[in-house]
Amino acid sequence: MQIPNFPIGPDQEDKTPHGSDEFPFALYESKLSRNASHRADWHWHSEMQLCLVKSGAVYVCLSDKKLELKAGEGCFINSGMLHMIAPVEDPDSTYYCIDFLPALLSLFPGSIFEKRYIDPYVGNPAFAEMAFRPSVPWQDEILTRLQTIADLAESKLFGYEYQVAECLMQIWLSLLQNFRPDAAKKTVVSRARNDAVARAIMTYVQAHYKEEITIDSIAEAVHYSPGECCRLFKRVTHDTIFSYIRLYRITQASKLLRETGLSVEDIATECGFASASYFISAFKKCLKTTPLRYRNGA
């Protein structure tokens, strides 16, 4: 199952319920071309996330990190970490996304597993992400277990929940055994600060994308200088603020194209574009098709 254009709150939190209280686990097979902007836009969630690329290649972007993963590779993303996933080239690139709450690993509240092996690491910026490559033996074992989890979750055979939980625990232990905290200490403080600034800028853009937005207006809203806003935002997202504004407007426009009968001219105005011609040009550059063809499903 895939949730295209999943709901994202004003603070960039993914509002999708993943799994249930009884079994806080969910598996999604995500084809990026099914999303409005051909990517899983910037968001975070309380769940930890494991990814396994099924076909094509994707970028997984986090604060000051940009992982390029091809088919057969994967990654871990910790709870609360701002991230985005986009295709390297092919918008049909597909990956398994496994979301689960840390409680699934602790067996019961107050356990030694929770106190010693979970609480110190969940949401820790020094343990934000990790890529998995088949060329590294312990990472290859994780990749094999990720495929096993996908097969189990899709089969839903009797007892699959036990087997999924067992695989997740084995993966978690392997991550902890291979975590190198000393190499990550220097990034912790700046990473948290940079993420907070980027989130604030995104929140401002989402609230004002229909209007004219300037760097000065953003800087005033987030209480940083214009230059510092640009520098920190690019460090986190690997993109400029104005590129983000343009893409966010295109994402909102693509929803209106599919969900309303508004004209292209009206949608351009509604989404903050200066003219219909600029909107059409930007839309085609981003999604490789025209607004009308997109509306018609081409």
Automatic annotation (TrEMBL):
The record ties this protein, via SUPFAM superfamilies, to: Homeodomain-like (SSF46689), Regulatory protein AraC (SSF51215)
Q: Which Pfam families match?
A: AraC_binding, HTH_18
User: Which PROSITE patterns does this one have?
Assistant: HTH_ARAC_FAMILY_1, HTH_ARAC_FAMILY_2
Q: Which domain of life is it from?
A: Bacteria
Q: Which UniProt keywords apply?
A: Activator, DNA-binding, Transcription, Transcription regulation
Q: Which GO terms describe its molecular function?
A: DNA-binding transcription factor activity; sequence-specific DNA binding
Residues folding into a coiled coil are none
Give start and end of each HTH araC/xylS-type domain. Answer: 199-297
Q: Please state what the protein is called.
A: AraC family transcriptional regulator
Q: What is the lineage of its organism?
A: Bacteria, Pseudomonadati, Pseudomonadota, Betaproteobacteria, Burkholderiales
